Amino acid sequence: MKKLPEGEKVSIKKQNEWPEGAHCFEPLFYVLSLGIIPTHCVDTYTVTAESNELGTVKVTSMQGWVTLLMSPFPVWQYGFGTEKDVESNVSSLIEVAE
């Protein structure tokens, strides 16, 4: 990501209308396997400041039993993030990077 210009506000816009990823729109395997085969969805967001595009952020969501195995990892968060959640997380990451 590029450096945030002084005094500009970060904004987030979702690029894809529908989530992408393995089995995200095909829940048949997820349902038939009772969650053993997980759904894996990815949303892509564009990060912009008032004057230019800073970069893109991908948010991955998973459903199924695999989430129990992933829960000890530090990057794991429970629940689905909204655009506001993604915006606040990206803003805090930019502040840390500066």
Strand order of the largest sheet: 1-2-3
Q: How would you state the average pLDDT, rounded? A: 77
Largest sheet: 3 strands, antiparallel
List the domain count as a whole number. Answer: 1
As a percent range, the share of helical residues equals 25-40%
Question: What would you call the structural class?
Answer: alpha+beta
Radius of gyration: 16 Å
* Overall geometry: elongated
DSSP summary, beta strand count: 3
Number of helices: 3
Which consecutive residue ranges, at least 5 long each, have pLDDT under 50? none
Taken in chain order, the helices and strands follow as EHEEHH
Quote the distance from N terminus to C terminus. Answer: 11 Å
- Percent of sequence in beta strands: 25-35%
Task: Sum up the structure in keywords.
98 residues, alpha+beta, 3 helices
Summarize the structure.
With 98 residues, the chain is an alpha+beta fold.
Walkthrough of the structure:
This protein is 26% helix and 26% strand. It has one domain. A 3-stranded antiparallel sheet has the order 1-2-3. The chain has 98 residues and is an alpha+beta fold. The radius of gyration is 16 Å and the shape is elongated.
